[in-house]
Amino acid sequence: MGKVSKPAVFARAAAGAALLGLLSAAALPTPAAAWDAKAAEKSTLRVALIAEVQGKKVFAGHGTGFVIDRGYVATNWHVAISNELINKKIPYKLYVISTYVPEFTEAETIWHSEDLDLAVLRVKNLDLPALELSTREPLSYPPKSDSIFVVGYPGISDKFLKNPDEQAELKIFREPSITRGVVSRIVVARLATAGVARPIIQHDAVINPGNSGGPLFDACNRVVGVNTYSTPNQLRVVKDERGDQYAVGQVAPGFYSPHVSNLIASVKTVPALKDVRLSLSSETCSEEGGTSPLLIVFSGMTLLVALGAAALAVFRRREVVRVVESYSAWVQRKGVSPGAKRTGSAAAAGARTPSARPPSGPRRATNLDATFRPGETAAPAASGDWTLSGKDSTGKSASLALAQSEIEKAMGKAEKGLVVGRSASMADKVLGDPTVSRRHAKFAISDGSLTIEDLKSAYGTKVNGQALDPFQPTLVNPGDQIVIGGVTFDVRRG
Q1: How confident is the model over 69-109, as pLDDT tens digits?
Q2: What is the pLDDT of residue 167?
Q3: Which residues contact 432 (CB under 8 A, 6 or more apart)?
Q4: How buried is residue 441: exposed, middle or buried, by Cβ count under 10 Å (0-12/13-18/19+)?
Q5: DSSP state of 259
Q6: Starting at the edge strand that comes first in sequence, how are the strands of the sheet with 418-421 ordered?
Q7: Cα(196)–Cα(193) distance, rounded to whole angstroms?
Q8: Whole-number Å distance between alpha carbons of 436 and 137
Q9: Which of 46-70 are b and which e, b meaning 16 or more Cβ less than 10 Å from the residue's Cβ?
Q10: Distances from the Cα of 307 to the Cαs of 15, 18, 119, 326, 342, in angstroms?
Q11: Which helix (H) or strand (E) holds 97?
Q12: Of 143, 198, 238, 400, most Cβ neighbours within 10 A?
């Protein structure tokens, strides 16, 4: 065999070290966002029909609905439109109620489709967060055997769960129930010869009358279907030749939820729904939450140790091993314009403008200055504005400027605040850190003061070391410390 040069040996050793680093990364699975029952319940409502019979208000039935935008609730057509009451010419109104909407609040049907068995209600002053709807391919997501969750108000529980205390009874009435199952299959079909053929999810999470119109969730709290139909047990008693009796027929019922893609398509095309702004996601469950900080640190240390061992094995003498950084890495580190002469001068780096550095990922055209750039300092804040400065999860400088005017403008929109997150398509301010969720937190103004609200993020939000509960606004004062995922900020104003 011919003699192998030291560079070749080192290249092979480095390749082996890199493979070891990748294997160590694979050994630690990226965490997915856990199912959050509280967040699902918060935006799921009981839709009640109250009829007026001989001058008296009578409870005439109910279903379930879920928030798709601030002030807008989706449900089934057969929940919102009572043909029985209409045929009898009995007037009725729709109301919503839940743990988070403790009083009956009137709702107005602004659109309905019998073919799709869908309806959208408008509820004034309903200030609950919208649920995220999945835009994944309807016939392949969620895949078979994936976990799904049903949240709603089954009527059977109203019959069997009673309490003589009126307030306790009302509390039961407001409280939704949750069932869990797996996806059996997704097919294009009609439901019991009704409506049009459309993607329908068959699953085994229990649905009862009263669940109709409620959300079917994947394991990451994204709505994938609208609960609509169940096939009841079909048992009958028969006798054999000797007179012995047997129960025969279908024991296990089936449960069916038309895919949420039907609702998304309707909102995009129906003029009556032009003001509805949906919260959409094209990601699968395993993609939620970004990369674990522990995974990043562990993999990096493993790779460094492996490379060091490879270097010692190749170079027996005491030598200085110089790692040559790529030009693109140097540009990222120095922050100079692409094509600038590589001098290593600090003055050259300091002479750049914020727009000179190419963005590291997709950004909104209208939000260039909001994009997070590691190592970059914030522009001077105007009087009354807030500046957040600190370190990202890797220890690099991070900053975020929050102008009072832009927060106030965002307060007038559906989100009621300025959303910060990793996704350029879902957040107003982008933080390109792997520990930050796509929609991580929201800044708002209350009585002239800044507030922050965690949006059910994977790695959480903290103020002065205190972890925030999702969807609970917390006051932020100058001098406070905020942690968004793994990004730590100090707050100052003016």
Answers
A1: 999 999 999 999 998 899 999 999 999 999 999 999 999 99
A2: 76
A3: 360, 361, 371, 372, 373, 374, 422
A4: buried
A5: B
A6: 429-430, 418-421, 441-446, 449-454, 474-476
A7: 8
A8: 26
A9: bbbbbbeeeeeeeebbbbbbbbbbb
A10: 9, 8, 60, 18, 27
A11: strand 92-97
A12: 400
Q: What is the pLDDT of residues 93-102, one digit of tens each?
A: 999 999 999 9
451-466, pLDDT tens digit by residue? 999 998 888 999 999 9
Encoded tokens for 66: 């879920």
Q: Which two tokens stand for residue 222?
A: 């994204």
CA atoms within 13 A on the CB side of 52: 5
Span 462-489, average pLDDT: 94
Question: What would the DSSP string read from start to end of 303-318?
Answer: HHHHHHHHHHHH--S-
Which residues partner with 118 through β-bridges?
113
pLDDT (tens digit per residue) in 29-62: 444 557 899 999 999 999 999 998 888 888 888 9
Q: How far apart are CA 372 and CA 29, in angstroms?
A: 26
Minimal CA–CA distance to 76: which of 278, 215, 203?
A: 215
Amino acid, res. 442: K
Sheet with 222-226: strands ordered across = 229-231, 254-258, 194-203, 177-191, 147-152, 215-218, 222-226, 132-134, 279-281
Q: How many helices (H) and strands (E) does the chain have?
A: 11, 28
Q: Which amino acid is at 349?
A: A
